[in-house]
Write a structure and sequence with these properties.
The complex is a heterodimer of chains A (603) and B (79).
Chain A: H1 3-8, H2 19-24, H3 26-35, E1 42-50, H4 55-67, E2 70-76, H5 82-87, H6 91-96, E3 100-104, H7 120-145, E4 149-152, H8 173-190, E5 194-197, H9 199-206, H10 208-211, H11 214-220, H12 229-243, E6 250-253, H13 264-267, H14 279-296, E7 300-306, H15 309-317, E8 330-334, H16 338-348, E9 356-359, H17 363-372, H18 387-394, H19 404-423, H20 429-435, E10 438-443, H21 450-459, H22 472-479, E11 484-493, E12 496-509, E13 512-520, H23 529-543, E14 548-553, H24 565-568, E15 572-576, E16 582-587, E17 599-601
Parallel strand pairs in A: 1-2, 1-3, 3-4, 4-5, 6-7, 6-9, 7-8, 10-17, 13-14
Antiparallel strand pairs in A: 10-11, 11-12, 12-13, 14-16, 15-16
Chain B: H1 3-18, H2 39-53, H3 59-64, H4 68-78
Helix pairs in contact in B: 1-2, 1-4
Classes of the chains: A alpha/beta (603), B mainly alpha (79).
């Protein structure tokens, strides 16, 4: 029975996974994941600095990361030497040159715990000694390695000396842990490359008694119960995949018995269950509210339902429906197969199908989407009262930064839809572009946009010439290096501001600029933004005495749309290797004509 | 469940955990007999045995079991 899982894998590493099966089969699973690595997999060096045994944490983390297309190699600190290794620059760690550092500490690593007979001053001293030790370590790691650092906050103690007052009195350890966790969070707020793994919440989800079973500490020096580790590592992996831009972006939602109770085509809009009148109606209203909340942080909602469209719309016209028709960026209510509908919506809004989570109460529909769209997440969503928990724990939309861009995303897509409507009114495409009154800001990387620029390098797959993934610290390094010419492009028009949508940079080699990165968000395709970027790049290069541009195109499964990008910009192909990687060159002089005609640059 | 059935199930578990279909466990099998049976695998093994038999060993059981025979004895007491 369980052997069957291996053949249809690795859906089984998606939430809700079977932790027992994972632990038992971890070797087999790893072998299979390595054999079936998706195209576009990335490799990352992850240093784990541990305050307790973490072998199982690492092994489970590896499986989940592989399943996200991230191939990790690990540096593992010696037992409980997280501080020494991190603080005093173990040469092996320096040589390893981590892309990411994870500090696996827990309540067991609090060196100085308050005692009931401590004075307030003593407790304060203990508190400061703990927090200063950690802050010192973090500051050192952030400056020495310039890479993302993930730090566990603290789990609660498994017994309470002072009972309920453990959370109240200065000497209470529950209170002590809460204060430390608060200050850990503050540090994360102030440092963009520093992230908290909220094990305090994880422990609560799992249950303190089970999580803190002393057997595992005393037998093996594990800070948490070994059976809890798959869930623990899943949560950790979700932060890492989010840092590397592998979050989902959109939901494809069924309607009947998914967004409301009942079948609208049979029962009629007046009789579906939604709203505060019945328990079932409340469950669905709560779920719609949750979706509306996801929308507010930039997740895109789309409908994918077997219904007549006019009937389906009526469900959202009810006054007690939390979601309204306009909340959906795509609305497919028809009798087409759902995998085809999902692919159609994806194309309409320029996303790939693997950016979607498909939510449907019907297992048969889920099976169709699972089979035909391999990258799309298709959770076994459970009963109506489980929907929120399933989506939440699965961490498809794990937030590592909440950029303005995320918050504005839905408005931007809606504006896009309006643009498409107005496009229809023009005979000539140039006339349409003119009507948009586009203005671009095209300038060297500036610190306010580092996080957005890094995010774009990790998220853009289609209009991306070299698909080079960069962390925020990589971006910062290049921005501050005179040997590089960097540009970001922001585009706005009469329908709204698209934010930063294009990134390019090149390395100066004498009078040649070697263009290492060129990407653009697909939401501004066919707006001539790439032409405006190239015009500006040429202008800056000439001012710096550069007379040749050299470009690279590295083909991937997703970036076929830009294979002729350099040819279209007047470059000549000078080399091509067996893998199809191409090298292009173009001479530039002050006689160049600007290519872009519809965008005002840096007005 | 008979002692023989417990052994058959244990044998399957060992083969799964060590990913090796040639393993045959008997009364006297210990960690020394299986190359990859280190402390990390031991934890996985104990956990899987607990899951598959739906039992929970006490710490004194884990510390006290000297070979697979002793493990089978304890399993028979707990199921």
């Amino acid at each position: 029975m369980r052997e069957r899982y291996l053949k249809t894998k690795m859906r089984e590493l998606e939430y809700p996974f079977d932790p027992e099966w994972m632990r038992k089969k971890k070797r087999k699973i790893k072998k299979q994941l390595l054999e079936e690595l998706p195209k576009g997999a990335i490799t990352k060096k992850i240093a784990i600095l541990g305050g307790s045994t973490f072998d199982e944490v690492r092994d489970m983390l590896e499986l989940f990361l592989l399943n996200y297309g991230i191939v990790p190699s690990f540096y593992s600190s010696e037992y409980n030497s997280f501080y020494e290794d991190g603080m005093f620059d173990n040469p092996e760690l320096i040589e390893f040159a981590p892309d990411l550092i994870y500090i696996h500490t827990s309540f067991k690593n609090i060196d100085a715990l308050p005692m009931p007979n401590d004075s307030g001053d003593t407790v304060q001293e203990k508190y400061e000694s703990v927090i200063n030790k950690f802050k010192g370590l973090w500051e050192h790691l952030l400056s020495k390695y310039s890479c993302p650092v993930i730090q566990n906050n603290f789990d609660y103690p498994f017994y309470r000396l002072l009972g309920n007052n453990d959370a109240v009195l200065i000497q209470g350890r529950v209170r002590f842990v809460r204060a430390l966790n608060h200050e850990f969070a503050d540090f994360a707020l102030q440092h963009e490359n520093f992230f908290i793994n909220d094990i305090n919440y994880q422990q609560a989800v799992y249950g303190i008694d089970k999580w803190s079973d002393p057997l595992y500490w005393n037998m093996y020096k594990y800070a948490l119960a070994v059976p809890a580790i798959p869930a623990f590592s899943y949560n950790l992996a979700s932060i890492i995949k989010a840092i590397y831009g592998r979050n989902k972006k959109a939901l494809s939602l069924d309607l009947d018995n998914t967004l409301w109770g009942g079948v609208i085509g049979d029962d009629g809009p007046d009789n579906i269950e939604i709203g505060m009148e019945t328990p079932t109606g409340q469950i669905y209203a709560e779920f719609q509210t949750y979706l509306k909340e996801l929308m507010s942080m930039g997740v895109l909602l789309t409908v994918n339902s077997k219904n007549d469209e006019s009937v389906a719309r009526e469900g959202f016209e009810r006054p007690d429906s939390v979601l309204k028709k306009d909340d959906f960026i795509g609305f497919k209510a028809n009798w087409e197969p759902k995998d085809r509908n999902l692919a159609g919506v994806a194309q309409d809004i320029n996303l790939t199908t693997d950016s979607f989570v498909f939510v449907d109460d019907n297992p048969a529909e889920r099976e169709i989407v699972k089979t035909s769209l391999t990258g799309t997440a298709v959770p076994d969503i459970g009963n109506a009262e489980d929907y929120i928990r399933t989506l939440d724990r699965a961490a498809y939309f794990e937030v590592v930064r909440l950029s303005q861009d995320d918050l504005d995303r839905n408005a931007m897509y809606l504006a896009n839809a309006k643009r498409q409507e107005s496009e229809v009114q023009f005979k000539d495409y140039g006339e349409y572009l003119d009507s948009l009154l586009m203005e671009a800001e095209i300038k060297p990387f500036s610190s306010v946009y580092y996080s957005r620029i890094a995010q774009l390098t990790n998220k853009s797959n289609q209009f991306n010439l070299t698909t080079k993934r960069m962390s925020q610290s990589d971006i910062e390094r290049i921005a501050e290096d005179d040997g590089y010419i960097t540009l970001y492009g922001k585009l706005k028009d009469r329908f709204g501001d698209n934010g930063v949508v294009s990134v390019a940079y090149g390395k100066v080699c004498g009078d040649v600029l070697d263009i290492e990165m060129w990407l653009m968000s697909c939401r501004v395709l066919k707006r001539d933004m790439e032409k405006a970027m190239m015009d500006e790049l040429i202008r800056i290069c000439l001012l710096r005495g550069i007379h040749t541009l050299r470009g690279h195109y590295y083909p991937t499964a997703k970036n076929g749309m830009v294979k002729d990008f350099f040819a279209e910009r007047g470059f000549e192909k000078v080399d091509e290797d067996e893998a199809g990687n191409t090298l292009w060159e173009r001479k530039i002089s002050f006689d160049e004509m600007a290519e872009s005609r519809y965008i005002k640059v840096n007005p | 469940m008979t002692r023989k059935e417990v052994f058959e199930k244990l044998n399957d578990i060992f083969r799964d955990v060590f990913d090796d279909d040639t393993i045959e466990v008997n009364e006297d099998t210990t960690a020394a007999d299986i190359d990859e049976w280190d402390s990390l695998m031991h934890i996985t093994l104990i956990g899987t045995v607990e899951d598959e038999f739906d039992i929970k060993f006490a710490m004194k059981d884990i510390v006290g079991m000297k070979n697979v025979g002793a493990m089978a004895d304890r399993i028979l007491e707990l199921i």
